[in-house]
Specification:
The structure holds three protein chains of three kinds.
Chain A lengths: L5 H15 L5 H6 L4 H31 L24 H37 L7 H20 L18 H4 L3 H29 L12 H32 L11 E2 L2 E2 L8 H35 L6 H14 L15 H27 L10 H24 L1 H7 L3 H31 L5 H27 L21 H15 L2 H13 L65
Antiparallel strand pairs in A: 1-2
Helix pairs in contact in A: 3-4, 3-5, 3-16, 4-5, 4-7, 4-8, 4-9, 4-14, 5-7, 7-8, 8-9, 8-10, 9-12, 9-14, 10-11, 11-12, 12-14, 12-15, 14-15, 15-16, 15-17
Chain B lengths: L18 H29 L7 H4 L2 H26 L3 H31 L8 H28 L4 H5 L1 H31 L1
Chain C lengths: L5 H6 L3 H26 L5 H23 L7 H26 L5
Chain lengths: 598, 198, 106
Amino acid sequence: MTSIHPETQHAEAALDHSKTHHQLGFWRKYVFSIDHKVIGIQYAITGLLFLFFGFCLMMLMRWQLAFPGRALPVIGKLFGESNMPGGIMLPEFYNQLGAMHGTIMVFLGVVPLGVGGFGNFVVPLQLGAPDMAFPRLNMASYWAYFLGGVTMLVSFFVPGGAAQAGWTSYPPLANLVPTGQTLWILGMLLLITSSLLGSVNFITTIIQLRAPGMSFWRLPFFVWAQFVTAFLLLLAFPALQAAGVMQLMDRVAGTSFFMPEGLVVSGQVAQISGGGSPLLWQHLFWFLAHPEVYVLILPAMGIVAEVIANNTRKPLWGYRPLVFSVMAIGVLSFVVWAHHMFLTGMGTAMSAFFQTTTMIISIPSVIILTCLLLSLWGGSIRFTTPMLFALAFLPMFAIGGLTGLPLGLATADIHLHDTYYVIGHFHYIVAPGSLFALFAGVYYWYPKATGRYMSSKLGHLHFWPTFLFMNGVFTPMLIQGMQGVQRRLFDGGETYYHAQDVLWLNEVMSWSAWGMALFQIPFIVNFFWSLKRGAVAPANAWDATTLEWAAPSPPPHGNFATPPRVYRGPYEYSVPQHEKDFLAQFDPDTGAPAPVTV
Amino acid sequence: MSEVIPYTVETRPDTGVNNVKLGIWLFLSSEVMLFGSLFAGYILLRVGNPQWGHGQSELSVPMATLNTAVLITSSVTMVLAWAACMERNFSRFRLFMASTVALGGVFMVIKYIEYSAKFHHGFFPSTSTFMAIYFTFTGLHALHVLAGMVVNGYFWLPGAKMFHSEPQRFANRVETAGLFWHFVDLVWIFLFPVLYLL
Amino acid sequence: MGTGSDLDLHEHIDVKKHVRTYIVVFVSLMALTLITVAVSYLDLSTGPAVALALLIASIKGSLVACYFMHLISERKLILVTMGFTMLAFFAVLLGPLLTEINEVGP
């Protein structure tokens, strides 16, 4: 790259590209591409679509919760006689919506966007690498995810409908419900395969493809977060893979892995061998699902860290504590899972063990949050749209994390388990937590991917109402939960005496959810409008320090003409005695200390 | 060329490995967890079931012992195939790779005989949790044997062209396939006593 | 990138010595297989039977891992990765069991 102007750099890169690489047809370039950037965008768009779909499922549920037994006007009848006869929701359909909302948001939405989307697009660029270590495996991972997603969607249309035993698929119920559940298992097996292949790719890439001078201690925090996340996926997902195979055998081959003897179903003794254990499923499921929640939050924390450093024009406070904390979370997340099972009859010894590990794991989370908060102190804060979302993440994640503490203590959990309090707790972390961070990531890296900024006005119009409505949806859940309102009730607690005082909150939550939906429109409009009409962005759109900003916007195939050299750590902002308020990792800036040789 | 991925064949100096070597060990880590979870299931189900079937009376120990010998032998032929690659001896590579695939086939045939005998006598996965574990565990293992045979078969026949064009890269690939194959043998080494002898 | 570095060839120039090792390991594995089958007919109680079977299997497994899979001469990076894996392995293997045997009540 001899030119400093992004447009001519881009043109030069395009020339390079066509000289060294034969021209690919449309299908190989945009559909079956092995370029990590194309695959990242595929993951991101598919993930965003699934997030939207999962949101729609929830909005349907919120009608039933706010107005139980009432016909949904206009669109109610579209769902068919088996789901909503006369527009009135059946409990079975409510359960399908609930199970699929959870499954889709977690496995088809947040993780594909956070890891598949942002991880794939950004990590090789931040490492100074030309692509992922295994580009074809990368493509295979995306298509396995896509097929898994299709399988999940198809399950709505089979007789009996989609999975309806919760995203947690507990037996014996999960073994007995209609065919959709089998498709759920098959979909999960595909999704898990996708994740496993992806995590092999991420770990190898981060270890092997760092550019000269990029030691581990100079990695952006985002990369560290993705690194630990990949290990969580690699080692935890197989447990659900095994459990899924066993549940498949139970459903299809009549085995009794999870079915106890003496089971009576609808008044009749089940014709099974018995001898199985429903708790075995719970152990294997949660062995995955607990690390999974860290998979949901770690990339988000990584994004927030990048955006905060960039928009305070200061180095991140406590880079090493941040890194050690994220490693600690990784290790500890494997030994806390049974805090989801406090009420299953475990003895005091194991209960004490899991309570202890759960309390301990909150420490590194608090350290990370504190470091991010302290990073703001004394900063020159730029309230760009990504920064708005990153800032909001902090108190929202704090609420989510703090509300988790009583759940991690068995005595308090007796009262709160399986209530709306739990739903409020984890949604605070994952909705105004992770999802806000993912929005921040979209606004932040959009200029890199497209060469244009998103509109700031539309960004504010997206952010403020969404922030308001998020709290409108999830704070009442904490209140209802403490009152004892259970989760997964298709009438929102209407028939329960102890719920009467807090039933009115159902309507508050529903209107907040529908209001929130309205203000996602500015985001969607912004996303597409800015592709052609957004302000043109230079290569280093935000005056940032990490390597991805050295490449043109958008980067060509191969990313960098020659591998960039790394001269310093990732957050050298406001370095004294320098004209600019930032010193990029890739800026030679003669007079700087000698680089670390690889 | 900026699109070429570094360290696909040559080792990276500070880590001492190439990408594929690291990649396959990572994949094997996930497989350790997969079979580990199945073992965990076995342990939980067995401990909770006082009338657990005794492997020796319900299953054929001679056939499984033979299968164990078959797999161990195939592991040796696999590693000897790799050694032949390192010494650039094509015909010896061909011989040992073919033997590995063939022995894998023998394993599958013996498994087929075992399964058919079970079905013939009315023993299905649904018959008892012991049978459920037996069929699921050995079935999943057999699928891995099959996958290994496909990969090895590819290197024996169509893929062997690379032996002549890029011998070291080919040797690395054979080593990688070998690591998977040895792992499959390793799983059986634990599976055999646990299911058949205890 | 093409034929690979000479360094690899030098490292394995002792392939003949490795082959001898493989044969020794092969014979040991066969012997241990026969031993584990023979021992199973000794009619031990469950505890010792399980312990002995797992011990022999672990020895066999270690031989395969160390010599066929070259772990004994492998890089620290690979060993560390497998180390973490083994920790997770024991967590999933023993966690559910320990939780379930520590039951509430009589």
